[in-house]
Structure formats: C-alpha cells, structure tokens
Model the fold of this input.
Amino acid sequence: MEGILDQIIKGELPEQATLAVVRGVFPLEIEDQLTALFHICKGNTSLLDEARGTVAGLSEEVIKPFFQGRDQKPEILDFYLREFLFPAGVTEVLLLNANMPALALAEIAPELEASLLDLLVNNQVKIQEHPPMVEALRRNPSLSVIHTQKLDEYERLLLKELVSSDEELAGKTTKQIEEEAIAEAKQFVEVFGKEKESTRAKVKKNAAESQDQKDAETDRSDTLNEIADDAAKQKRPVLELIQEMSVPQKVQAAIKGDREYRGALVRDSNKLVCCAVIKSPRITESEVEFYSNLRNVQADVLRLIAQNREWIKNYKIVVNLVKNPRTPLAFSMKMMSRLNKSDMRFLVRDKNVPEALRTLARRMMRDGK
Done:
C-alpha cells in the first residue's frame, strides 16, 4: 500500500480512486487510511465532510493506536484535532500525545469539554512551550476554581521570580535593573495582557456558576470562605514582603508585580521605587486614574503621569491632576484649558490647589474659556 500513499502524497492518484479512499471503500489498513485522508483533505478541503463520515464509522479501538504513536507526525495530529469530532476517549489520546503542537491545543482550549480540561490545565510542558495557552484556557466557560488557581500559578512561574536576591542584583545600576524588569514585564503583557480580575473575584464568579439554583447562596458562601482561608494561609501579606525588600528589589516588584504590589509601592518614599510603578508595562489606565487623585504620592509620580500622552487623553486623569495640589504647577497650568466649565468653577472655589491655579481659573472664566 505504500505505492498508493506515495501517489496520494504526490497528487497522482486518479480521481475515482481518491474518492474511494475518502469514502472508505478502498481496501487500506487503518493507519494507511487515516494517513491518506490527511494528505487528501489537506489539499482538498471540499472532501472533508465525506472524510469525517468515513472516520465516524470507525471504532475507538482501531483509531486510538494511530493517535497514540510516539512517532506520529505533529501535522497529522494537528489536522485531526482541529478538523474532526471524536468521542472523548479518542480526543484524550490526541491531547496526550507528546507530538501534538502546543498551538493546536491552544486553539481548541476555549471550546474543550469540561471532562477533558484537566489534561490541558495540567500539561505544564505544553503551556511552557506556548504560554498563550493560559489565556486560551481562561476563555473556556467550563473552567473551575481549581483550574483558575492553577493557571494563576503558571502565570507567576512564567514571569520568573518577582525579585532577585541582593547577590544577583549586586553591581547592577538602578537603570539596568529597571530595563531588565521592564523587558520581562513587556513579554508577560504580550502573552497575558495587563491585569485580570482579582483572584477573589474569579473565585466568586466560578463558585456562583457551579452552584445549583436551590442552594446557591449557602454553598457559595462556604466555598468562598474555604478558598479565602486557604489563600490566606499560603500567601504572606504584600506589605510584609515589601518591608523585607531592598530598594533594587522594590524597583523590580514595582515593575513586574501585580496591582497589589503597585498600589503599595506607588506611595513609597523612595523616588526610584514609586516612579518604577508608573513605568510598569503591566499598569492599567484605571490604576493611573486612581493614582492621579492621590494626595500622598510624590510629585515625580504625578509628573510621569502628566507626561504620558495616552493617559492624558483620559479626561478624568486630567481633572485629577489639575486638582491635585501635588502635581507640579507647570503641568497643572498647561492642562487647565482642557477643563469644562463645571470643573473650572469648582477649581476657582477649591482652596486646596495653589493660588496661582485659582487665579488662572478666574481669568479663564472671565475671558470666556
């Protein structure tokens, strides 16, 4: 039968014989049959429906060995995973074959049935090979609380250690530490995006969806309390961890860490640390909006926000900066013309802002700004 396969691969098999193979009436061994269908349909997708009907008529027992082969070609595994619907037992074999391309797994992850999700969530080798699989799995509506926590852990591992030891940082300038942390955080953002909803929020959402209607309230409360207690036992408070960090380590945490780290470190008394928060590729616009309104941050933090062209397109950030008495006056005055009449009137009466700003606001109101 090798001669037939060679003709199929070269596209030299007569049309009638090709149709006979696709319809399963040509005498071929199962392995040759499935290999032939791959080569035929790869070049002629119009025959896929007939090929699917042929494969559907084969039993699991005869199909499984073909997909279990350690030397099976990745492109063949990829083809059958994407293009065919199999019973769960056959799909499981496909998912477990080490030669299955990670990209193919990521593409089917959002729709994978709940009973098979464990196979992907626990496949750390393939996730490390193709990190976007984590985000693809998150889109699966059947994802459980345990699955979500596992994916959160993968994200932390893929970002490497949050802070390096003092020995590793010795001899490096703050600029070098910043640049390395920013590069690593950028790679993380490219794969996972910026901030996700908090773990507790995801726990609530998943727990709510998993409860029966009649006892949802009671069970949901118990589940959340158990998970929250476990998390509290395993995780040290961020503020406690920060207290043990050196300045270079805080800079790393400010850039690479999550929202909780940024929220704590943006108020740090060291300018290098608090400004590193604003330089983090992981920071979101909603965080910047919140920070722009803080009265207990250094002026350098507000200056960095005011210098970012994308952020000052957000009117709320502009208003916060103008009203914030810690914003450098040059930036506040420059943004005054952006205010609407209502906010301008408020500024005239606001005794917390510099008098120079109130005077300018009065003049602009009088001149019909």
In short: The two ends are 86 Å apart (CA to CA).
